[in-house]
Design brief:
67% of the residues lie in helices and 4% in strands. The chain is mainly alpha-helical. Helix 3 crosses helix 5 and helix 6 packs across helix 8.
Length: 203
């Protein structure tokens, strides 16, 4: 193992240790997992399928994308669209700073740390290919792992509301990400007609 790969592995281990502190648990196949640790591992697994040659910066950013998210709850901000944007902005900064501080403990170089922080904080989305790659993975993980549960929690949403949600997700993705959504991930079967309708309308 060379020094660079050793620092990478230590950073991943520190990210996972931080997320393992999540008091919120999610049950998968009868086994409980800290919610954000499970999410982080799903993000890495999806990146491995979607872009196996991704740089170390992207691989680290993907693992840290929701790091210790529970520390800044949505309820800390007003229940309005403006409040939501304020919350998301605070999260981006918090995740980036947390990842950067943990990476410093491993001896990672300043250039890599700043690059990871830039990707995690979604700087240059659409213009920066690596930031866009992170966004694609976020959306693919949502569609494969979280869309069905989200739908179950919102039976009050009508078809128009769901089409709007799915179209907004679709528009955030790159052409490669959209292709992967239709060919490389497992979409919830009972929602496929609605997904295809939304995608068709967005095309």
């Amino acid at each position: 193992m060379n020094a660079e790969s050793g620092r990478y592995d230590r950073a991943i281990a520190l990210f996972d240790a931080a997320n393992a502190q999540d008091p919120n648990l999610q049950t998968v196949e009868g086994e409980q997992h800290p919610k954000e640790l499970l999410y982080a591992r799903r993000m890495s697994e999806m990146l491995g399928r979607y872009a196996p040659a991704a740089s170390a910066a992207v691989r680290l950013a993907v693992r840290a994308q929701h790091i210790q998210r529970w520390k800044i709850p949505r309820s800390d901000y007003p229940p309005t669209p403006v409040g939501y944007k304020q919350w998301r902005t605070a999260l981006y900064k918090f995740h980036a700073e947390t990842a950067g501080k943990l990476m410093q403990q491993t001896g990672c170089g300043d250039e890599l740390i700043e690059r990871v922080k830039s990707i995690v904080s979604k700087q240059g989305i659409k213009a920066d290919p690596e930031t866009q790659m992170l966004e694609d993975v976020v959306d693919l993980v949502f569609l494969e792992h979280y869309l069905a549960d989200f739908a179950a929690k919102h039976p009050e949403y009508d078809e128009a509301k769901w089409i709007d949600i799915l179209q907004k997700t679709w528009k955030k993705m790159s052409p490669a990400g959209r292709e992967a959504a239709l060919a490389k991930i497992k979409l919830p079967e009972h929602l496929l007609p609605l997904i295809k309708k939304a995608v068709g309308a967005a095309a």
